[in-house]
Each structure stands twice: as structure tokens, then as C-alpha cells.
Fold this protein.
Amino acid sequence: MAREAELRLRDQLSRLKSLPLLRGARLEGDLERLQKQLDHLVEQPTDEDIWHSVQLARHEDRPYTLDYVERLFDDWFELHGDRHHTDDAAVIAGLGRFRGQTVVLIGNQKGRDVKDRIHRNYGMAYPEGYGKAMRVMELADRHGFPLITLVDIPGAYPGVNAEQHGQGGAIARSQALMSRLRTPIVTCVIGEGGSGGAIATALADRVLMQENAIYTVISPEGCAAILWRDAGEARKAAAAFKPDAAHCLELGVIDAVVPEPEAGAHADYDEAARLLGDALAESLEIFEGVPGEDLRRQRRVRFRTIGQVSATR
Amino acid sequence: MSERIDVSIEHKHAPPEDGGRPHPNTCPDCGSHYRDDELEANLCVCPQCGHHFPVHARERIRQLADEHSFAEEAAELRSDDPLGFFDLRPYTERLAEAELSTGLGEAMVIGRAAVEAQPCELAVMEFGFMGGSMGRIVGEKFARACESAGERGVPLVSVTASGGARMQEGILSLMQLPKTVCAVEDLHDSGGTLISVMAHPTTAGVLASFASLGDVLVAEPGALLSFTGPRVVQQTTREKLPDDFGLAESNYSHGHVDAIVPRPELRATVARLLRLFSDGA
């Protein structure tokens, strides 16, 4: 048993050492912190570290999509409405110049103060939000603009109206559309990557996660309520299903971890935006000149093979 | 098939066994109680009130496919435990227990079949296997069913019954949503067809992925088809839920499914659709 554990650990270590991670920060001043973060990642995150990530991902001062838009985009032009009957404020969509090229951005948006939070529905999208995302995805595809999606959603809105408007189908169709796009897609989870609500806009060619973001199949509280029959056991649940960036990278769910300022993204918006911007730019570069047909084929292969079970026969 | 089914008096209104939980063969709507063979003979539909009982995967295949036409594929696939997941019990123990109680290796059975002589691929979920939850093997089996259907140029018929993604596989289970979505898109690109039959319950991650992407969406009467279950919606929003919250009938009236088909008509309906789609290619 000990032997098995050691082998597993060694295997993890060798994989973590050859990570394609922490790119997007080429300046010398970053090196030291990057090394520190690498060391941190090489060490298996403890249950405490994981819970710390959960807290930071939900930190009320954490930068949201529009904070990054403000710092990363020139000529930002926000697009509103799903073209059917409403505009879901929990989903941001727009066009802008990012490092010299026109890109389309879709992002989840939480609110800062009480009024704003209610306006944004605490970042929880209705099916109409995915409708808005989809029509903007089509716009990106039509014009060959790269698509950036920023994911920060506790979960798709669990309400009667949302169900009646077809929440499940909207999430399914949004993913299906992303799998058809012939334009490059880069996704970064910048806070909470909450389940179906998150994956609806995360079927990308390259998926990044900020260092303190989380990506989950169910909220720690929800998981605890079901499996432990006590929502108070959220810490245990989080430790068990490992939603932190280091584990997501190890499992092959994401392609790279985007570093944050030492104390977390909330401590320095400008620095967090610079690091995110560099990582997004590097990711987009990878797909420059790749024919659209190849892009979508590779994108589907990526998701077809994630977490493939090797020893099943 | 047409022989009369009597509900024996002593079975009617059978007292709930083990601490208040109704017996699985007791109709929750009218209280009638049946023997296994009585239920099976009636396609697991209550002869008194029409309530649709859950159907196990093997039984569903017997109901839908022509006799001896089903050839299972990928039966050897088993889940492992990628996260070393332990809640109140280890995940591996739950898996072993589910296999013992259902006789199935996972919560989905796939294979070639024919329905009224129309060749197709079947992908049928088993709710009894950990709530029909979708982990990596369910995702893999569904993807293989799409591939098998695509290669043979036959439609895929899926029958879903699932509580959603399998929490014990963490983020990897969420990844089964895009995986199955991509598989359906590949099938569609190759000119293939997906007929999605949604049984009770088709919820969360399965509703939010392949089940909603069928060319035709058919629901069974009374099936719960909701992304979020009624209890969580109630707790989160404190809204008063309508009586038909999330039910097939509500989904139908809001335009989310094409038809509600009672089980006795399901086989003929699927065959009709298979014939219609076989013309397109």
C-alpha cells in the first residue's frame, strides 16, 4: 500500500514538474513568485489549502468580469439582450480590442453591493443568459473573432421560472454550440466554476484557472447536504472532491494555472488583470492560424479524452 | 400479453415495510400493490391508475427491443476511484454494492438492437445504480454508443433516468457533460440521429447535456425533468412551487419536449421515429 502511494506521488510529481503552467508571466520580477507557486503546487494541497481556495474564490472583493474588462480591453462595447425577450445581467457579453485584436468576451458577473447583487442575481444565470451567450458566440464565429469566456458562477439559477424557461436545455445547447464554433475559444475560471452553469460557457480549446479559483460539479455545501446529510460539512466535502486549481490541473481538466498576486486577486486588481491578460494572450497565440475545422475537431477530442479511464479492462 | 392482471386483495394497500418507506411495488399514486411479475407484465405501469413505475435497464431493453436483437457493447467497463473519494463510506464500496444490487457494471447499458425490425443503437440508464449518476464510465459508454451508431449509420435511442453527475468523481463527472455533448455533435455531423427518451427522473447533468440534444425529445408521463430538483429550488428561493413543477407535462406545455408518450405506446413510437429518420440518409 505504501509502495502504491509512493508511486502515485512520484508520478504526480513528475507530471507537475513538466506542467505547462504559469505561462503568461514573462517578466523577471515574477520569477521568484512563480517558483514559490510551483513549490506550492508540487506539494499536495492540504485540506486547509483547498478550503482557503474556496474562500478566496468567493471573496466578496474578488475581481469580477467587468473589473478585468476595464483593465484588459480597449474600445469595449457591451452587447445586451438575448434577442428574444430579455437581458440577463448575470451574463456579460461584448466586443473589444484585446492586445491589438478584436475579440468577443462572455463572462459571468456578480454584483458588488446589495442593489447590484440583486440586479446581477448573485451571478446566477437564467436560461436567457445562455441565450445571450449563444447569440454572441455566433457573432464571434461569423466574423472569426476569438472568443474569451470568463467563468465565475455559483451555479445556474435554481428557480421555478428558470426551469420553466428550460435551464437544462439551454446549458446543453450552449455547450453544443461551443463544440461547433470554428473560432478559437479560451476560457478562464476566475472565481467559482459552479457546475452546469459554468460548463455551459467553458467548452473551450484551452481552459485556464486562476490560482485561487474553484471548479466544482456541485457546491461543497450541496455535496455535504447530500452525502453527509449536513450542509455544515462543506469543508469535508471540498476536501473530498478537490475543486482547487492544482487538482484540476493534475486531473487534466484544465491546461494551465494562472498566477494571482501573492495575497490573492482581490488584493491587487491591476496585477491580477495583468497576469490574466498575459495568460489569455499566450493561449490565443497558440491557436493563431489554425484552421477552424481543425480547431473544433481538436476541441471535441480534448473533451472526449479528459479523464479517460485507462485501466478498465 | 393481454391476460388479465388481478390485484390480490391482501396486496392492495400493503403496509409500508422498513420504517415507513413504501414498497417499490406499491403504487405511490393509488396505493395498489403488485407482485413483480404482475408489474412486469404490465410494462411497470399501474393497471389501476396509470402510474409509471421505474424500469430497470435490462427490463427497458426487453420492452423496447425485438427479441434476441440486443447485443451489448462495452459491458466490461467499470469505474475506478480517481479521487480516492470517501464520504461516509468509500466510493469503491458504493460501486461494488451497486453492481451487486443491480447486476450491472455501471449506470448505463449500451448495445446494438432492433425495434420493430428497425436497426438502432440503444443507450439505457439504470437509476438503481447510484441514482443513475453520470461518472466517467457512463460518459464513456454514451460516447461509444454515439460512435457505434455513427459507424453503422443507425439512429441512437437513449433512455435516461438520472439524478445528474456523480459527485464522487468530482470535477471529472462535470466533464462528462461536454464529453457527451461533443459525442452527440459528432454523431449529428455524420448525419446520425439521436432520439432521446426521458424517463423519471432526468435531471441536472444529464438533462443539461446529451438528453436535451436529441433530434426528438420524448418524455414519459409524470417524469421529473428539471435541472434543479424541487427540494433545492424550494430551499434556495423559498418560492411556492407549482404542483406540476418540473414534470414532463409542465415541460411539454413550456415547449421543452416534443411529446409525452405513455409506456405502452413507447415501442411503437420509437419504431415510427426510426422509420421516419431512416429515410433521410
Remarks:
- Residues 220 and 237 of chain A are 5 Å apart (CA to CA).
